[in-house]
Write a structure and sequence with these properties.
The protein is mostly beta strands. It has one domain. 0% of the residues lie in helices and 48% in strands. The chain has no helices and 18 strands. The strands form 3 sheets. Strands 4, 5, 8, 9, 10, 14, 15, 17 and 18 form a 9-stranded mixed beta sheet that branches. Strands 1, 2, 3, 6 and 7 form a 5-stranded antiparallel beta sheet that branches. Strands 11, 12, 13 and 16 form a 4-stranded antiparallel beta sheet that branches. A hairpin with a 2-residue loop joins strand 12 and strand 13. It is globular, with a radius of gyration of 18 Å. It starts with 24 loop residues before the first strand and ends with a strand.
């Protein structure tokens, strides 16, 4: 399936803090034209895009039943549909795979001048400090291993093949944090087409088993987003807490 940037709605769940590091999302799309197919790493929001940094992209993989292929080598800054992205080099065919990426936004501290991209060692008196990590998965084909747990620190895992859930159906997903079900967090659903005001964003809360049922109201591209803040940070000398953001892209009702 293709997830053209202009047709994706990426909606951020407000975290406990609102910073340059926590208030944006990272997601993956596949683009094909006369020059071949590319996988793009997108960052920001549909109406406010930021240029991802190549050096912050830790890995970008295409996962199939046959194994995992790294797509990280050769990625570079690019512009697709007039939006800044980091993209792979063109290939003859689009990958039909579970695409997965990790992106390190680094450390942030809150100072009297606002949030800065630094850590507690440099600003021991900062009123807030955090480490921000982004995780993204996209199913680029109905035959992709949709149920595979890739091991991201925060991860949305479908419990049903999204391509078999048509409009009017329900997609059941589980949210994992460090491999364990995460209860009581909100998953937000974009319809893949129309920007939605914050008050109108559909939200679905995970139960005690980390599971939420996501109603599918139309066929086509979708993106699910979840954010989670954990304290204390894994690196308490550098940050007070960790901010994690995860996305899952798929095309509903598309068995091809």
């Amino acid at each position: 399936m293709r997830f053209p940037t202009k047709y994706l709605v990426v909606i951020c769940i407000a975290a406990a803090t609102s910073t340059a590091a926590s208030a944006h999302d990272m997601w993956l799309t596949v683009h094909s034209d006369g020059g071949g197919s590319r996988v793009a790493v997108n960052y920001g929001h549909p109406d406010s895009r930021s240029a991802p940094a190549v050096e912050k992209l830790l890995d970008l993989d295409a996962i199939t039943s046959g194994g995992t292929q790294s797509l990280r080598k050769g990625v570079a800054a690019a512009a697709i549909d007039k939006s800044p992205v980091v993209a792979t080099t063109p290939s003859p065919e689009a990958p039909r795979a579970l695409l997965a990426a990790r992106y390190d936004m680094g450390f942030w501290v809150k100072t009297p001048d606002g949030y800065r991209n630094s850590n507690k060692l440099n600003f021991p008196d900062a009123s807030d400090s955090l480490w921000s990590m982004k995780f993204a998965k996209t199913l680029s084909g109905a035959d992709a291993p949709w149920d595979k747990v890739v091991g991201h620190e925060l991860e949305i895992v479908p419990l049903t093949n999204p391509s078999t859930v048509a409009a009017g159906g329900v997609l059941r997903v589980r949210v994992l944090f460090r491999g364990q079900p995460l209860a009581g967090v909100e998953i937000e659903r974009g319809d893949g087409v129309t920007p939605v005001a914050d008050k109108d964003i559909p939200r679905f809360t995970t139960n005690s088993e980390g599971i939420a049922d996501i109603p599918i109201i139309k066929d086509g591209p979708h993106l699910l987003v979840v954010d989670y803040k954990s304290s204390p940070s894994r690196v308490p000398a550098l940050a007070a807490s960790d901010i994690h953001g995860a996305t899952l892209g798929f095309s509903a009702g598309s068995p091809k």
